[in-house]
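Late entry, written up from scratch paper. The run itself happened at the end of the previous shift, but nothing got recorded in the book at the time, so transcribing now.
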Amino acid sequence: MELLNRLDQPSREYTPIPFWFLNGDLTHREIRRQLLDFCHHGVYGVVLHPRIGLSKRIGYLSPLFFRYLRTAIETAAELDMKIVLYDEGMYPSGSACGQVVQGHPEWASRGIALVEEPQPDDQVLCQTERGYLVERFSGGTIRGIHFGEDDGEPNAPPSADILNPDAVQRFLDLTHEAYYREFSAYFGGTILGFFTDEPSILGRNAEHMQPWTMGFATLFRQAGGNLAGLTGLFTGEENEDTALYRRLILQREGEAYYAALSSWCEQHGIALMGHPHQSDDIEVEKYFHVPGQDLVFRWVAPEKGGTVGMDSVMAKCSADMAYLMGRKRNSNECFGACNREGNPWHFTGADMKWYIDWLAVRGVNLFIPHAFYYSLAGKRSAERPPDVGPGNIWWPHYRQWADYMARLSCLMAEGEVQCSIAVLCRNRALAPEKAAPLFQTQRGFRYIPESLWSACRVENGCLQYGDRQYRAVIGDDGIFPEVSHDAMAVPADCLCQPPQPELRVAHLIWQGQECWLCVNEGSQTIETEAVFPVRAAIGRYDLWTGRRWREPSRQIDAGTTISLTLRPRESVLLFACGSDAEGRPLPAQPRPCRVINETHFTLCQHDEARHVKTYEATVEACAGDLLVDVNAEDMAELYADGQFCGAAFWPHQPIRVPAELLKKGFVTLRLTVTGCKANQYGIQPVFYGLINT
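Output as recorded:
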């Protein structure tokens, strides 16, 4: 089948493209070595990210800086890898590591504050009953690329006023134009895009202020605003003036910053990539050629649930805007500082698998892992850990992770997600509490932001945007009242009995073929009868292993029903076979002749220095495959009489011992469990090994 062939060997364009932290004393030889190593592990692209810890001999945007980047770009071209340029040193974007403000102090970030008494340098906007509303420099900074330039340190670079078109043009001149002068031959080929990273109007560490820029008071008054009404920004009392302010700030940010960067990238044959400042900043996503978001600091997590809080909407924010704007790809900068319980580096394969699935089933189709570290020397290992690539325990097996992300990216980029419900939203108001019941009942929906409502129309009781119809809307009852506001009346993508609130389903059409990506987002095994609204045989494709088989199914009035079982961290692609001829070539579900678990193994060695426990079991030869149900915390590698059989990365992940290794006598199984890097770099050790032994 063409779909499965595409997934078996996804194109290199679907590779994960990690942040590569250039955070050490760079050498040309080591740059080449690491890129070749990435390529050998199935990673065919990187974001060149200048990062704190970079040697002080390498000045930002200096000739030496560009010589090292040239080595990286030329090596990538030789290896048929792709490069994404990073537009700052370090983040948030917009100040060129403070160089925008050098010689132009008036271009530093500005804000307004409500104070009892103005300071000498304040510009008083108005006096109110609650105090003075003043304009002042925010004092905001960014994180720099050399030690001594981090938050709160004396050399932290000043942030720039990204609402000021002159400051933004200076930023483009310093960064984008300099990169183009050096590497124009690679633009649109090896170089895919420029990554802009959570631009902040105020900068970091600016407290008790709201965004502002020179001349904005005049603009605000001309639009009918009353400056005194902006005291509500500080008291929490929303009014017409605060609403107008938010609208004008959003418009100014879009036009002055995002539109300028977007236009520059378009003119130079590359994509604007990256992500805005906040997880529900949906309106500015339209300026990105690859809309994006970032999932960091465990804002959502397995133990919190995937549908709670403002950050739970980020994946749909980027994916839905990509669809609405006709963009093929959307991205997520994922895994950064997603360690457990404040223990740096306590991030397991179980965590990584959950995050990948969480993103993919919501439509993300470009993974930007945060991060691969050039160096882990000294305090670099504690800077926004963990390294999720070569510095981690799973690197020897990373091709399997890279292939998994590539398969999901291919599926979600080439398939069209089907949605019959529109969630009408405003910027920074994506109503996660309204989205949660849709996720939990397997109903597909799409966010449509306020700026696109005027392009919608109502036809035959449905909301129409472009060539897509929505049978129900969620939003204020007064908006499109002709369309049903009862989303639960819209049929689910699959009907589960009993209901499964932790099952996530993305319904896709891939070249006319109906598919369902199913993900278990919970901590318990899902067992349900699932009905899909088609009358066809159902095939199953394991995106992790590439195995496929035909699901036992039966036809009922509502469609085709199967018994669906998904363990925690399990994901599967189900697809409708268009004819019996398509279904017949699929094998029946493989049934191992024997299953063993952790109770069969005995601990025989504990290497505390390497954080490795080795277990052994002796099993009698048998006909057919043996399945080992690996209930381990952290990475487990299985060998049968010394021959490698596979690795498991989360509890109860099965590993098959092929029949050819089980032909006669007794077979010794050796299972090595390696503890996560928290045991080396964290603040306290964590358990590793077989569970319940």
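Residues 421-487 form one domain.
(Scratch paper discarded after transcription.)
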